[in-house]
Amino acid sequence: MSDKPEELNVQSPQTEQTERTPINQEAESFERAVDTPQSRLEQLVEQLKHDIAEDVVDEAIINEVNGQLPTITVKKEHWLAVARWFQVEEEWSCDYLRNVAGVDQGDELEVVYHLISLQTRREIAVHVKTEREQSWIPSVTPLWPTANWNEREVYDLLGIDFPGHPDLRRIMMPDDWVGHPLRKDYDPSDTEV
Amino acid sequence: MTELLQQALTWQNGLIFLGWAVLFLFIVLGFVTYAIYFERKVIGWMQFRHGPTRVGPLGLLQSVADVLKLLIKEDTIPQKADRALFILAPIITFVPAFAVLAVIPYTPSLYFADLHVGLLYYAALSSLSTIGIILGGWASNNKYSLIGGMRSAAQMISYEIPLVISVVGVVMLSGGLSLRTIVEGQGNNFWEWNLLPQMIGFVVFMIAAVSELNRTPFDLPEAESELVAGYHVEYSGFRFAFFMLAEYVYVFAIASLTTVLFLGGWHPPLAILDFIPGLLWFMLKFVFVVFFLFWLRATMPRIRVDQLMSFGWKVLLPLALINIFVTAAYIELFLK
Amino acid sequence: MIRTEELLLNVGPQHPSTHGVFRIVLKLDGEIIKEATPVMGYLHRGTEKLAEQLNYTQIIPYTDRMDYVSAMTNNYVLVHAVEKMMNIEIPERAEFMRLIVMELQRVASHLVWWGTYLLDIGAMSPFLYAFRDREVIIDLFNELCGARLTYNYMRVGGVKWDAPSGWIDKVRDFIPYMRKRLKEYDKLVSGNEIFLARIKGVGIYDAQTAIAYGLSGANLRCTGVNWDLRKQEPYSLYERFDFDVPLSFNGDCYDRYRIRIEEIVQSLRILEQAVEQFPSEGETMGKVPRVIRPPAGEVYARIESPRGEIGCYIVSKGKAEPYRLKFRRPSFVNLQILPELLVGQSMTNLITILGGVDIVVGEVDC
After folding, report:
1. Helix (H, G, I), strand (E, B), or coil: what is residue C35?
2. Would the CB atoms of C197 and B307 count as touching at under 8 Å?
3. How far apart are the first and last CA of chain A?
4. What is the pLDDT of residue C132?
5. How far apart are CA C66 and CA C45, in angstroms?
6. Which of B41, C16, C335, C350 is most exposed, with the fewest beta carbons within 10 Å of its own?
7. Contact B307 C118 (CB under 8 A)
8. Which residues of C touch B305 (CB under 8 A)?
9. Is the pLDDT confidence value at B130 over 90?
């Protein structure tokens, strides 16, 4: 996992991410002197730490190429609370879950959620990681019904369990399929071919 | 034909009757063959394409090829189907279709039977075919056929009543149920036909007739895009041909009935044109009604089952009843 | 003793109206649906898994086959995602070509939807009229890139083939032809009593449900939510052109029908302007390295396909093949609302509602 931008530690200023304006370099605290994506991200992380738990956010970066999309990684135990926070928090009110993607990162599995609020246009991408064995991530289907089939697809293809999901069963593969095809260690050999 | 019918029934007369009936059967089968061909051509032209052109000159032998194909197909009966009913259903559907043709008068002297209750005979026999459809739907042991059969039963009941009631006005004007009397009661000019005095009845009759024929826009029992051919989905080969045959013979029957009841039968539209034989006028009007049915099929979408029944009961039936009252009032006030 | 039973009906993988190999298991009470369970996966071809072993240019033909009715927009979402990651600049002429083919594709896709929707409802003729007009568009594409359905046209950095001489004029001639045809179709179908009775008031849902279920495209705009990615998150050259986004408020099948017809009208407007502003010369490919190796990172690119929001999420580790490629397919997400909409409807309305959602099973299964 090389070349990923440095992890954000809220106390130290970020080196490569933000625009190089003099005012910005002074804005280490939470006052919104200049409203940059970076400062908003820092504020978000602070809010999450305050509202949910101290260790909820593992990582927070700005995805430059993707239109300055704030991207955070949260711990799976807190994911449901974070999701609810994004849905009800006034500034964010993310009512539209755009995309749920499962990724096999080698040593662990992760699911990426892309949220957006249709009124305020604030977007966020959330990564939630879990182990390869006995992997589970709380389901957000009660919050956004659109996650229903998306999570079924991730379960089917990657084998991540979603406790709280109303009807977790395979969606693409036949019901009696063994294995999870999208995993990197999936053995696709078909005895008949 | 009239003298023949009035003589006593001997073996010779009986055989002559049989000969005429067989000849007529062949004429009807010929009609069916070319009705199918023309339907495909006309609908094709309306859809900006040619229709059958390859088999035979101008594609004229297409239906012959199709019938031949159906005849030589394997006769499959689903394993769990009710064999006796499965085999019986197409027959029950077809036989009344052909039997009703007996009462239609084509010219003053060309008819097969002049029943005093000709119209009633027609209505009664045409209802029997629906039993065949329901049986076919049930006996196929297939849920789609079952739904198709049930829909057909509902549709038949909903539209048979407006069909018959809409012609009561014609009966009142003509004074009898015999189809010959009804045609003779109409005159040699198109305003003397039953079309204009009985306009409401005509409209109701046409709509109910399209529904009785199970044609678009009322072809729910065999709705292709929903029920995948509905009640005849399990039929193949010649049994399927029987169902199709029944449908087209009914087209012949309804078109003839419309011509007889409303369009003046063998009468010309203007009195000066009466040098043209009546049979030709009959055929012309008949062809026009058949073309109208094809035209409807190419144009209209399908109606939904609950809308169909509410239309039949809430719109057509009251209209037909109003027609009776208006006709009765008219007869009482102006013709007495 | 008379009793009623629930009928378990399989609107099976083989059915004329399910628009592909797609199955719905219905519990029927007479003709009323008590429960509907969609079953899919019959057309799952493992595109996402295959993509992990192919380089980006090799994946482009696979994208064609996902939503095969609207292949150009699929091409675009993939190359757009890669170009975002690598920050490649596209020459203007190439971008114009892309926009023109995407809008033509939108018209073609909506025509297919229109023809098949009416065929499902029972009218046979509009299907043939729609395909006759689509044939003009397909011929244009054939001339441009050699294929009628799966074009493999766009590349990272531009497009593969330049417009042949006279092609733009043919596009220009197509626009008034299609406008005239649309008027005819409106007269034939949109006022038809039977048709209106069939689709008005059927399959209603409100804006909150639509947003919660993640619907997009006409399915979302029929409830009054003004969300069209061409306007809200502009990509390509859409900001230069003047067009409206049809919006409606009742949330029933009729609204979705009207919106899609109106979208064809708006696409013709965009095409007209694009053809006017088309640069007479220019490159068709930008400066792209020989081997396309996006830097490590991830991107989620999304565009407005005729069916809704199509998205491409790429995780790259700096190699020529993507580490993970996921497509956010609009038909897959839009279809989720079907079980909820169908409860309590008659079986005939199943076909009406399913057609109104406008799915392509290649996209549902990917």
Report:
1. strand
2. yes
3. 35
4. 92
5. 9
6. C16
7. no
8. 31, 346, 348
9. no
Q: Classify burial at B1, counting beta carbons within 10 Å of its beta carbon; exposed 0-12, middle 13-18, buried 19 or more.
A: middle
Q: Per-residue pLDDT tens for C331-345?
A: 999 999 999 899 888
Q: With residue B145 as reference, give the H or E element that holds it.
A: helix B143-166
Searching chain C, which residue's CA lies closest to the CA of residue A145? C213
In the numeric block, which tokens belong to residue A166? 């109303």
Chain A hits for C328, Cβ within 8 Å: 98-99, 101
Give me the residues of B, 202-221, that contact C with CB < 8 A: 216-217, 219-220
How far is Cα A47 from Cα A119, in angstroms, rounded to an integer?
21
Q: Provide the ipTM.
A: 0.90
What is the Cα–Cα distance from C114 to C198, expressed in whole angstroms? Answer: 15
Query: Is the pLDDT confidence value at B301 over 90?
Result: no
Distance, CA of B232 to CA of B222 (rounded, Å): 7
Distance CA C297, CA C323 (A): 10
Token pair in block for residue C330: 């609009």
Inter-chain residue contact C298 with A95, CB threshold 8 Å:
no
Q: From chain C, pick out residues whose CB is under 8 angstroms from the CB of A118.
A: 211, 225, 227
* Overall average pLDDT of the C217-227 stretch: 91
* Res. A29 pLDDT band, cuts 50 70 90: very low
Banded model confidence at residue B320, pLDDT cuts 50, 70, 90: very high
Reduced to 3 states (helix: H, G, I; strand: E, B; else coil), residue C62 is helix
Q: Which of C41, C212, C332 sits opposite A173 (nearest CB)?
A: C41
pTM (global) more than 0.95: no
C188 contacts in chain B (CB < 8 Å): 299
Q: Which residues pair with C325 in a beta bridge?
A: C314
